[in-house]
Amino acid sequence: KEEGWYVVVGDSTTRELLALKRMGLEVRGSVRLRLPTHNGAGVTLRRVAVYVMSDSYLGLDQQYDIVLD
């Protein structure tokens, strides 16, 4: 099986999924995601959680909390 990575972006306040992207194996890569400026409740997004998860390895998942300007 070829390993892959998922980049998941969510609103940590409402626990709403905002974006999801699957990437293949690369030594170095970048992802461009379009995010809404408001959540489902119509509130302006101020903070999102970004998760990077492997579909092949346990223990490599990362979480980053990002404040939006």
UniProtKB/TrEMBL annotation:
Keywords: Chaperone, Endoplasmic reticulum, Membrane, Transmembrane, Transmembrane helix. The keyword Cell division does not apply. It is a multi-pass membrane protein. InterPro entries: C2_domain_sf (IPR035892), Ig_E-set (IPR014756), Sec63-dom (IPR004179). One of its GO terms (cellular component) is membrane. GO terms for molecular function: RNA binding. This is SEC63 domain-containing protein. Pfam families: Sec63 (PF02889). It is found in: Endoplasmic reticulum; Membrane. PANTHER family: SEC63 DOMAIN-CONTAINING. Residues 2-66 form the SEC63 domain.
